[in-house]
Design a protein that fits this description.
The chain has 378 residues and is of the alpha+beta class. It has eleven helices and ten strands. The chain is 51% helix and 16% strand. Strands 1-4-5-8 form a four-stranded mixed sheet. α9 runs antiparallel to α11.
Length: 378
């Protein structure tokens, strides 16, 4: 087994780390406070190829592979989790459009998503009454002449207010998951409107909105893949998306641990540095071990995807472990800081708020356990 990164992977990791340290980290608190990511940061990510890391070069992507994507996500997540999730969803949308879009869709949207012209991409699957259970979806798409007409609402849509393109799921057949199709929808399509903005606990820099479709007409070739085959596309996308969120959670955990170590070395109590106290050392030891396991599980899933091998179970393991344990790491980091960890002046409180949702989106921890159990019992 080769544990060394290749030249492309190292270059992507280093470029992401440099940009994160230089351009994102100094503004991370402002992004959280202002609940907005500056457009120049998103354009900077796109200019580095980080909005299409695993997209073919022929469509404007970097073509660097899933491992490089995971490494880049971890670096961006370490600096700003809100920026990282915007990057994650844009990559996921670009991959879906590249893999399942018609030639028009591929050529019209993917290069402009990768180069930042469309600002970001959005993944519109969840609804007010259909989160973990997409089979309960109510949004519909009906054939009308030479196109489709979409009606319904979506919920929890990342970048919903400024994304240039959406992948939207809607019911085109009978009940359950077998009657769902996916569509590429331009943000400027009449009948598409942005609804309520969520006031979130964490990831405040990443906008999360509702979407409404009222007689929203799209061309016939906006259909992605086969009619009534959208559920399979969603599950494939989410499998890959879980690698991204596992990487994001790892980055948040790494940032929290770095700050806990630095604080423990600088802060004195009971006659010496906190770092000399065994209770603190055990917290740091557990955190370091959990994050290293998260990294290995995540890179294993990324390698499997990159090699074209089955990876659903491994992606679920990576996402479950990384999100659950990054939460523990952030909680311990706040505990190491004591009362100071509970105030906005110290970044660990932001890391704790940001990491919490990683146990919910891209499939809750409970859903990951179902996926893992099915694989183990099959």
């Amino acid at each position: 087994m080769d544990w060394e990164l290749d030249e492309t992977q190292r270059m992507v990791q280093e470029a992401a780390r440099d940009f994160a340290t230089r351009a994102i980290l100094p503004r991370a608190r402002d992004i959280d406070r202002d609940a907005a990511i500056p457009r120049e940061i998103l354009k900077g990510l796109a200019d580095l190829g980080l909005f299409g890391v695993n997209v073919p070069e022929s469509l404007g992507g970097a073509g660097a592979g899933t491992i490089a994507y995971s490494l880049a996500m971890t670096e961006i997540g370490r600096a700003c989790a809100s920026t990282a999730v915007t990057m994650a969803v844009s990559n996921m949308v670009a991959e879906v459009l590249a893999a399942f879009g018609t030639e028009r869709v591929r050529q019209e949207f993917v290069p402009r998503l990768c180069d930042g012209s469309l600002v970001a991409g959005s993944f519109a699957l969840s609804e007010p009454e259909a989160g973990s259970d997409p089979g309960a979806m109510r949004a519909t798409a009906r054939r009308d002449g030479d196109g489709w007409v979409l009606d319904g609402s979506k919920q929890w849509i990342t970048s919903g207010d400024f994304a240039g393109v959406f992948v939207v799921w809607a019911r085109t057949g009978g009940p359950g998951t077998r009657g769902i199709s996916a569509f590429a929808v331009d943000a400027n399509t009449p009948g598409l409107s942005v609804g309520h903005h969520e006031d979130k606990m964490g990831l405040r820099g990443s906008s999360t909105t509702a979407l409404h479709f009222e007689g929203c007409r799209v061309p016939s070739d906006a259909l992605l893949g086969q009619e009534n085959g959208g559920f399979k596309i969603a599950m494939m996308a989410l499998d890959g998306g879980r690698i991204g969120i596992a990487s994001q959670a790892l980055g948040i955990g790494e940032a929290a641990l770095e700050k806990a170590v630095a604080y423990a070395q600088q802060r004195s109590a009971f006659g010496g540095p906190l770092a000399d106290k065994q209770a603190i050392q055990f917290m740091i030891a557990d955190s370091r071990t959990e994050l290293d396991v998260a990294r290995l599980l995540t890179l294993r899933a990324a390698w499997l995807k990159q090699e074209g091998k089955p990876f659903s179970q491994q992606a679920a393991m990576a996402k479950l472990w990384s999100s659950e344990n990054a939460w523990k790491v952030c909680d311990r980091a706040l505990q190491v800081h004591g009362g100071y960890g509970y105030v906005r002046e110290y970044d660990v409180e932001r890391h704790l708020r940001d990491v919490r949702v990683s146990r919910i989106y891209e499939g809750t921890s409970e859903i990951q356990r179902i996926v893992i159990a099915r694989g183990a019992l099959s």
